[in-house]
Amino acid sequence: MSNRQSDGSVSRISDDQIIELISKLRQLLPEIRNSRSDKVSASKVLEEICNYIRRLHKEVDDLSDGLSQLLATTDADGALPRLL
């Protein structure tokens, strides 16, 4: 694998670096981190991390929508409505 740097040079990522990065990603995934199996393929980790990021984006969107609705219900003096 390679990536192009801003100065036009190409730097290589070693297999050990890829393994280390995949390991770090594994630790971010609750489903994989809590599993008993240490044998999870790199492709499965990448697939799960993409799904996890999608779920987090949806959660942020849902929370943002809820906050927008709550702010829209403020009364004239700017006080938030009582929730209980």
UniProtKB/TrEMBL annotation:
Which Gene3D superfamilies does UniProt cross-reference here?
Answer: Helix-loop-helix DNA-binding domain
Read off the Pfam families from this record. Answer: bHLH_ILI (PF23174)
Q: Matching InterPro entries, A to Z?
A: bHLH_dom, HLH_DNA-bd_sf, PRE
- Supply the alphabetized keyword list: Growth regulation, Nucleus, Transcription, Transcription regulation
Q: Where in the cell is it found?
A: Nucleus
Record field: transmembrane = none
Give every BHLH domain span.
Answer: 2-56
Question: Does the UniProt entry include the keyword Transcription regulation?
Answer: yes
Name the UniProt record assigns to this protein? BHLH domain-containing protein
Q: From which organism does this entry originate? A: Hibiscus sabdariffa
